[in-house]
Amino acid sequence: MYLVTILGNLVIILAISSDSHLHMPKYFLPCSLSVNDICFSKSTVPMMLVNILRQDQITNYTGCLCQQVFKLSCSDTFINNLLVYLVGALFAVFPLSGIIFPYIHIVSSVLRIPSSGGKHKAFSTCGSHLSVFSLFYRTGLWAYISSAVTDSSRDSAATSVMYSVVPQMLNPFNYSLRNRDMKVTVRMLMGRTPSVL
After folding, report:
1. Based on the number of CB atoms within 10 Å of its own CB, is 5 exposed (0-12), middle (13-18) or buried (19 or more)?
2. pTM of the model
3. Where are the domains of the chain?
4. What CATH fold (topology level) applies to the domain 2-189?
5. Higher-confidence residue: 190 or 160?
6. pLDDT value at residue 109
7. How high is the pLDDT of residue 81?
């Protein structure tokens, strides 16, 4: 999954940067999202893979200070946990609203499209975007809530993979490879079709 994430996002970046026809504002978002997905995956997944392969629970000093310290203290950690969750929720609200409000406008515009085929195509595209978005937010939220409720390492590991690997792997397919111009450029980049541009 990690290799598909890195390779898929690299293909998107290379396709957009190599084809001058794709140097338009509407392709800036997929390109910047691919850069973001690569950076996010490279900062979290390799260490997770090392820990899985070594099958140990060793955490570096900084990571230890950031995580399990609340549990080691001999005081009541309810207030500390509550503050962590409140700050996390506050930081989640701004991106969430930045995604929901544009989609409200998109849906209202799509409903004004006269043809049913156009509506279906628009809702199909928006549906795939929203499914990845909801997967990322739901699993991220569950990761934080479940860590406070249960100590199951198996559930935490599954949630972490769903939160930190799967959305980044699906983004190249949802945001770029469904686009006809991107498909042509990717095929030319891979050498499957001759260059006609």
Report:
1. buried
2. 0.65
3. 2-189
4. Rhopdopsin 7-helix transmembrane proteins (1.20.1070)
5. 190
6. 86
7. 73
